[in-house]
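Q: what sequence does this backbone want?
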């Protein structure tokens, strides 16, 4: 899978802070009313039984099963890894999840837990979730995670620098992290709930892609407003337009607040109708979630048997 990098067509826009600002502020303004109306409209699409079964399995395969708590233990991470590899021990046809996502100090434990399964290990880094640290500290965080075996790095941008208009600093930091990742894929988290406006989310999306993000990600899941249909739709439009202009495909990861199968299917409709079917694959779309998987498993069994299982059918993470 190719590593993203600024393309020749857009290389000049990152040559200085002023040119980058002109480019980002020259992007079309977002029609907030239109964006929210389209996201709401797509969320009303009716998904029938056969398509629903396919969508549930697809959503399971796109989950980054996540634990990011101060109380995480090796035992909890091993249990999460086992669940990612075999989400439903009673049904071997259930897909594995895309990845498990943990803090850097738990990467080695997670890597051992999913060994041989194809499940990736993702690690948050760069002083997650606030991102308030010096660049050398952030890069050391990334290198430690990669050295421990992380296949993917989820970094947070410096929202303070972005909101102050210091776009070049944010760009250069992403570029440095991309280099520190080596072969690991890079997901760039914007914390959309702190960016205030849809215009800022569009600018952050393009900034992340210009700097070499493999994925752009809505949120840390640690603030009041995380992934929404509208902000995810906006980011899907950005990756679609970026590929049309550069030929480079970038993934999208909504995270935080997506808890039910119904919600997940709405997001898959957004993907298909906005970016297109090329993104309906866990190489290009992920859900950052912890509780979502349980509901997907419950709904999957309901489709198979016609009834819901008891509360002990799924593990409590």
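A:
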């Amino acid at each position: 899978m190719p590593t993203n990098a600024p393309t020749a067509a857009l290389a000049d826009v990152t040559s200085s802070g002023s040119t980058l600002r002109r480019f980002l502020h020259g992007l079309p303004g977002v029609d907030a009313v239109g964006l929210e109306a389209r996201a709401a409209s797509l969320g009303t699409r009716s998904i029938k039984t056969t398509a629903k079964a396919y969508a549930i399995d697809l959503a399971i395969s796109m989950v980054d099963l996540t634990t990011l708590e101060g109380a995480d233990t090796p035992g909890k991470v091993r249990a999460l890894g086992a669940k990612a590899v075999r989400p439903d021990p009673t049904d071997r046809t259930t897909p594995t999840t895309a990845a498990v996502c943990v803090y850097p100090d738990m990467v080695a434990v997670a890597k051992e837990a999913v060994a041989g399964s194809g499940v990736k290990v993702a690690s948050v880094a760069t002083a997650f979730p606030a991102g308030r640290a010096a660049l050398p500290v952030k890069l050391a965080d990334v290198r430690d995670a990669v050295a421990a075996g992380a296949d993917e790095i989820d970094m947070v941008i410096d929202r303070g620098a972005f909101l102050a208009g210091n776009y070049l600093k944010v760009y250069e930091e992403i570029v440095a992290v991309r280099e520190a990742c080596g072969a690991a894929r890079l997901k760039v988290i914007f914390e959309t709930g702190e960016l205030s406006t849809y215009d800022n989310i569009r600018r952050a999306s393009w900034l992340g892609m210009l700097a070499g993000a493999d994925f752009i990600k809505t949120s840390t899941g640690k603030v009041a407003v995380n992934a929404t249909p509208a902000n995810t739709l906006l980011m899907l439009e950005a990756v679609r337009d970026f590929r049309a202009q550069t030929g480079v495909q970038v993934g999208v990861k909504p995270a935080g607040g997506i808890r039910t199968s119904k919600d997940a299917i709405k997001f898959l409709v957004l993907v298909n109708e906005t970016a297109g079917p090329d993104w309906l694959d866990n190489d290009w779309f992920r859900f950052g979630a912890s509780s979502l998987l349980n509901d997907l498993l419950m709904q999957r069994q309901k489709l198979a048997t016609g009834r819901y299982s008891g509360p002990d059918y799924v593990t409590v993470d």
